[in-house]
C-alpha cells in the first residue's frame, strides 16, 4: 500500500481547523476541506492511518450530497482540482481527489445522529435503561433489531474528549426549538432516503450522523455524510438480529481496539498492518457496492 497522508502541510494557506480526520483551510469566504487518511475511534486519533481512506470518504460524500440534494442543500462548491484557486495548485499531490471547496457556514454544534437499528452505544443504553437518549423504546428488542421508526439521538460536539449523548430537550435548550426541530427532521429525512437506496444495493445503513451549518439564513449539510467513518453499513444478506453484525465500516477497528488492554484515552495504540489493510478493503468494498 502507499503511504498514508496523516497531515497536510500548506504553509502559505491559513489553517482554519484540524479535526480528527479533516484538515480545513481558510480561503476567505470559502473553506478547503481535505480528508486525510487519519482514522479515529472512541474519539481518539490512531497514530497511523489507512492509506487511501480520505479519497474514499470524499467520493462517497460527493455521491451522497448529490443524491439527497432534493431534501437539503449542502456546502459543496466544487471538488474539481482545476476549479481551485491558483495558490493551491502547488499542493496537488496532497489535495487532489480528497478535498472539497465549500461554503463557509456557521456550524450548528450538534452531532445529528439517526438510528434505524439498535446497535453500538444505543444498544448499550437500551439494555441499561430501555431508552436511547431519552426516547423510550419497546421492551424485548434484540441487538441489531430494526426499530419501529427512525430515531434522532443527538450528541454535543466537544472540542476535546468524548461527545456526550443527550436528549432532544437538551438540544432545544442549546439552540432553540425551531432550529432543533429543523435539524432533527432533516436528519431523519436524509437518513431514510439513503437507507432506502442502500436496501436496493443489499446494504443496511443502520445508523449515521450529520452536521449542519447556516449560510445566509439557510440550514445546509456540511462536513461529510454517509461514509464508513460516520455510518454503520451491514451486508443485508448476512443480517441476523440478536448479535453484532458484519460491517463495512470502522466498527472493525473498534472491535480490534476493544480486545486490547487500552482505556480509550490518548495516546492511542498503533494499528497493525493487517488491521490497516482489512479496514481499507472494507471501505473500498462498501464504496463499490453503493456508488459504482
β content, as a range?
A: 25-35%
Question: Number of helical runs?
Answer: 7
The CATH topology of the largest domain is D-amino Acid Aminotransferase, Chain A, domain 1
Average predicted confidence as pLDDT: 95
Helix content: 25-40%
Query: How many individual β-strands?
Result: 16
C-alpha termini separation:
22 Å
Q: Any chance you could write out the topology, listing elements then pairs?
A:
Layout: E1 15-18, E2 22-26, E3 30-35, E4 40-41, E5 44-45, H1 53-67, E6 76-78, H2 92-95, E7 99-103, E8 106-107, E9 110-117, H3 120-129, E10 131-132, E11 135-136, E12 146-152, E13 155-156, H4 168-175, H5 177-200, E14 203-215, E15 218-222, E16 231-235, H6 251-258, H7 273-291
Antiparallel strand pairs: 1-2, 2-3, 3-7, 4-5, 6-7, 8-14, 9-12, 9-13, 9-14, 10-11, 14-15, 14-16
Helix pairs in contact: 1-7, 4-5
Would you give an account of this structure?
With 292 residues, this protein is an alpha+beta fold. The chain has two domains: 15-104, 2-Layer Sandwich (Phosphorylase Kinase, domain 1); 107-249, D-amino Acid Aminotransferase, Chain A, domain 1 (2-Layer Sandwich). The chain has helices spanning 53-67, 92-95, 120-129, 168-175, 177-200, 251-258, 273-291, and strands spanning 15-18, 22-26, 30-35, 40-41, 44-45, 76-78, 99-103, 106-107, 110-117, 131-132, 135-136, 146-152, 155-156, 203-215, 218-222, 231-235. Strand 1 (15-18) and strand 2 (22-26) form a beta hairpin.
Provide a brief overview of the structure.
This protein is an alpha+beta fold and 292 residues long. Helix content is 30%, strand content 25%.
